[in-house]
Amino acid sequence: MGILAKIFTWWNGATIGTALYTSRKGTKVGEDHQGNIYYEGGADSYGRTRRWVIYNGNNDASRVPAEWHGWLHHTIEGTPESCLPPPRIWERDFTPNATGTPNAYRPSGALEKGGHRQKATGDYEAWSPDAS
Question: Mean pLDDT over residues 76-95, rounded?
Answer without folding.
Answer: 83
